[in-house]
Amino acid sequence: MQNAKAMVPKPVNEPVLSYAPGTPERAALKSRIQELKSQEIEVPIIIGGQEIKTGDMGEMRIPHDHNHLLGRFHKAGEKEVKMAIEAAMDAWSSWSKMPWESRAAIFNKMASILQRHGEQTINASTILCQSKNAYQAEIDASCEMIDFLNFNSWYAQQLYSQQPTYSPDGMWNRLEHRPLEGFVFAVSPFNFTSIGGNLTAAPALMGNVVLWKPASSAVYSSHFMMNLFREAGVPNGVINFIPGSGRDVGPNVLKDPNLAGIHFTGSTAVFQGMWKTVGENISNYKSYPRIVGETGGKDFCIAHESSDVDALATAMVRGAFEYQGQKCSALSRTYIPKNIWPELKEKYLAQVKAIKMGDPEDFSNFMNAVIDQSAFDSITAYIDGAKKATDAEIISGGNYDDAKGYFIEPTTILTDNPKYITMCEEIFGPVLTIYLYDPKDWKATLDLVDTTSPYALTGCVWGQDREAVNEASQRLTHAAGNFYINDKPSGAVVGQQPFGGSRASGTNDKAGSMFNLVRWITMRTIKETFDPPKDFSYPFMDET
Ligand code: NAD
Predict the structure, then answer these.
(1) What confidence score (pLDDT) does residue 544 get?
(2) Quick one: which atom of ligand 1 is closest to the CA of 269?
(3) Cα of 291 to ligand 1 centre, how many Å?
């Protein structure tokens, strides 16, 4: 029986360090980057606490300096998937019964390790592996992970305290919050180190055992996250680390009868493929797998003519180009009234021109490289298309160079076609498309925002006119799971803005909240009667 008698301390968000010149964190981070860069590591698969080496190797390279090899990792195949499922199911017997306070203590200890000495390793590995600047690495890899760990223990406590409202005299009603009967498959994307950590830790905290497949381009930083799980005392077999190709690993995991849940973040197409595989195997499972997925986005900004133009310009720059636009929440399509455009254009382009791009070890760089050759090719194809289009014009950037690293300039496309391809499709790179509308068409433009893309992840409205803001908020009720008023549409913080979207953007189970954790338990209702009846008849049957 899980209960909530122990008190988990109420968390506060981990303070974000500034890395300003002269700070100790800046010196520590720089030195850790040098240490990691000077070694080539070999990353094993971890199954049941054992290091497994298949010899089928993938490479780990620095996106902003792709000749630099950080190391190689062993890829899992069918045999390792089978071993991992066996190890997980073995661990399930004791982990699923462990008191929840003990599980919470392990994950809170991991947060404490990150705070005390793990922080610079996880940040430096994220900088090298995913080409993030110091600030982006700090908010993702260490701070968000610490928050996920501490806040989820707090939310678990709230969840476990949920009990039936009433037990009449002579009986006791209660709820037992059981873990799922089977294993959870956690599949993580390249772009946030903490997402990999949370996709894994959240179900494990609730008593589940996990197979974790990180994105091949993020195995390096995920390996350091896995080391933290081990250091914190997660028992062998509870989290099994099985990097490898999605096509090889995925189907072998998904067809197993013990699959109890999928915790996915990544593209819509991959998620839909996984869901189909589950559908095809539906009669083989012991229970219906819980399917939780946060997927793509085409995040919008709609500005009213009453907008604060200076602040809007900054929100557009940060929203679209931080981490090279490779956030699921990155601003990607913007609707600007024609009457404020001349002033906004000048202010926006002045800021874009001031952006420096290059190696994240040079802290003056705001932007760095995109993740790999395939992302570089797909993003630059959109840019080349805009160069040739008659209904689009590039007004900033448009250049790119993959000679040393995968660098793409912050690119702005202006279009008079609200359905131009870069207004509709997820690009996942530093490309912002702007459509200018007549301020008289405010209402019709809200409809355009709502209907242009299949996604509904994040979006923002700008304006000082409260009627207009309210109208946008109402008309766009289902257009975004995270909606911002006079702010950029990215930068959600655990405990402050639970994150996730609907429509093609996912199941909207809100990472970093109690609503996500509820997916990883399956409740048993227990009614205990203290004085059970001893005669089958009821009073209404008495005709005398
Ligand atoms: P991706 O879909 O290419 O890969 C995600 C993961 O799925 C990787 O681990 C990959 O190896 C794995 N995979 C691929 N094919 C598989 C298969 N057949 N079976 C099982 N696993 C398989 O995504 P990515 O390029 O790593 O990340 C970018 C995408 O993630 C973007 O679409 C972005 O919007 C999305 N994303 C969404 C959120 C969110 O919260 N909504 C957050 C971050 C990223």
Answers:
(1) 79
(2) 2
(3) 15
pLDDT in tens, 405-444: 999 999 999 999 999 999 999 999 999 999 999 999 999 9
Tell me, yes or no, if the two domains 24-295+515-526 and 299-485 fold the same way. no
Rounded-to-10 torsion of CA 122, 127, 129, 131: 150
Q: Which residues contact 539 (CB under 8 A, 6 or more apart)?
A: none
Q: Which amino acid is at 489?
A: P
Which atom of ligand 1 is closest in space to residue 375's alpha carbon? 25
Residues in the chain, total: 544
Residue nearest to atom 23 of ligand 1 (CA): 266
Is 78 in the active site?
Answer: no
Hey, what are 275's tokens? 């869901």
Write down the catalytic residue from 328, 361, 409, 426: 328
Tell me whether residue 294 is one of the annotated catalytic residues: yes
- The rounded Å distance from CA 404 to ligand 1 centre is 25
Q: Which parts of the chain sit beneath pLDDT 70?
A: 1-6
Give the residues surrounding ligand 1 with Cβ less than 6 Å away.
187-192, 195, 213-216, 246-247, 250, 265-267, 270, 273-274, 294-297, 328, 426, 428, 457, 499, 505-506
Q: How far apart are the first and last CA of the chain?
A: 47
Cβ–Cβ < 8 Å for 195, 214: no
Assigned CATH topology for domain 24-295+515-526:
Aldehyde Dehydrogenase; Chain A, domain 1 (3.40.605)
Supply φ then ψ for residue 64, to 5 degrees.
Answer: -90, 0
527 C-alpha to ligand 1 centroid (Å): 43
pTM comes to 0.97
How crowded is residue 266: how many other Cβ atoms within 10 Å of its Cβ? 23
Report the nearest-CA residue for atom 15 of ligand 1.
Answer: 246
Fold for 299-485, please state it. Aldehyde Dehydrogenase; Chain A, domain 2 (3.40.309)
- Compute the distance between CA of residue 237 and CA of residue 241 in angstroms, rounded to an integer: 9
Q: Is 474 exposed, middle or buried (0-12, 13-18, 19+ CB in 10 A)?
A: exposed
d(CA 458, CA 420): 20
Distance between CA atoms of residues 201 and 315, nearest Å: 32
Residue minimizing CA distance to atom 30 of ligand 1: 266
- Find the 377 Cα to ligand 1 centroid distance in Å: 17
Q: Give the start-to-end residue ranges of the domains of the chain.
A: 24-295+515-526, 299-485
- Amino acid code (one letter) for 162: Q
Indicate which residue of 119, 138, 294, 322 is catalytic. Answer: 294
From atom 34 of ligand 1, which residue's Cα is the shortest distance away? Answer: 296
Q: What is the pLDDT of residues 304-351, one digit of tens each?
A: 999 999 999 999 999 999 999 999 999 999 999 999 999 999 999 999
